[in-house]
Amino acid sequence: MAQNTDNILSPENVVYRKPKLMNDVQMHYCPGCSHGVVHKLVAEVIEEMGLEEKSVGVSPVGCAVFAYRYIDIDWQEAAHGRAPAVATAIKRLWPDRLVFTYQGDGDLACIGTAESVHALNRGENITIIFINNAIYGMTGGQMAPTTLVGQKTSTCPYGRQPELHGYPLKITEMAAMLEGTCYVTRQSVETVGAVSKAKKAIRKAFEASMAGKGSSLVEIVSTCNSGWKLTPSQANKWMTENMFKFYPKGDLKDTTGEK
Q: Which pTM was predicted?
């Protein structure tokens, strides 16, 4: 007797549905990279908020430089590290738009430190999505400002040494101290539960931006298994055992509910 699959394939039983805003383009990211998951969350949130025609993403140089190929919204490319400055101009010109940047740790916390800190401190009504994998993933695996003490990279092959390289920069803690920020959080996407929390954080940040409550920063602690020279599963394990100790997850600041 043939099995009736109508109920099995009904919408409420489908585990994965590609967001409508995700284009049918093969991603260039390495297998196991966190970028693809975060892209999906961004696309889902924009679609659920009904802002498909009112969203502008800004991506600078880095692994996510081709983000415009994957999420079908308006995008603007920015020079390395300058995404918050570009996003500021777009939001001031079009205050009714959802404007966000999508930046890696080398871009945001090193080359673009000034733009990031000052845009957040001014309280620009934008969201910064900050992918922190503690390394320069695109350009050869060099040490980043967020590289952990003792962590090996192509430019510190014996491990990061504070007396030589300085200490890792906690950009999210810095952002939480600024007057202009309304929502600052640190999340990850290595488990189903973590993905759910990250999506809620992105949604809250986008809603705060549209409500004119100030700047939001959503850090996603991520893996770079290619740069770390680990398999995807090993990279997740290393992140859990090492990254989360120095970059603890959770909300650091939330004034979105204040009147």
A: 0.91
